[in-house]
Amino acid sequence: MSSEKIPIHIKIDTEIVDEEHGNENITRTEHGTYARKGHIHMIQYEEEMEDLGNVATTIVVQDDRVSIKREGSLQMHQVFRIGSSTECVYHHPFGKFRMETTTHHMQFVKGIGNRSGRIYLNYDVVLNEQEPRRHTFELHFQEEVA
């Protein structure tokens, strides 16, 4: 990737709109790394998930797509591309789920000197042929100052 991985502070806000079960809002903060090579940007972090253990997440931003790969007790490789639906298998301790993602809007804004930025995704997810649920994912990152 890049010769330099910078330590970053990450704030993630996720909203899931579910007309049947009500909306869910999740906010979390993590520490991770950011690297860039050309037009490819990569954010990596690990999180301790309650009752599930460690999950390593890698987010890769390219000109025409964003991908989120999770490894550990949860596993998936979700791809976001405007104007097309993508599929993956979501591996969870409770089973495997087919996940179809339709991306409506995505945006990556870089801060000055690539030391901060924002990723915004708005998309629908269908799990195992259930009704689609609208998701909004917003990640802000900022270089950590020693």
* Protein structure class: mainly beta
Spell out the helices and strands N to C.
EEEEEEEEEE
Approximate shape:
globular
Helix content: under 10%
- How would you name the oligomeric state of the polypeptide chains in this document? single chain
Strand content: over 45%
**What is the residue-mean pLDDT, rounded to a whole number?**
92
Spatial order of strands in the largest sheet: 6-5-4-3-2-1-10-9-8-7
The CATH architecture is: Beta Barrel
Structural domain tally: 1
The major β-sheet equals: 10 strands, antiparallel
Counting DSSP H or I runs of 4 or more residues, the number of helices is 0
Protein name: DUF1934 domain-containing protein
Pfam family, one: DUF1934
Organism: Piscibacillus salipiscarius
Structural commentary:
- The chain is an all-beta fold.
- It has a single domain (6-143), classed as Lipocalin.
- The protein is built from no helices and 10 strands.
- The chain has strands at 6-17, 24-37, 40-49, 53-61, 66-72, 76-80, 85-92, 95-110, 116-127, 133-143.
- It has a 10-stranded antiparallel beta sheet with strand order 6-5-4-3-2-1-10-9-8-7, with no helix packed on it.
- The two termini are 23 Å apart.
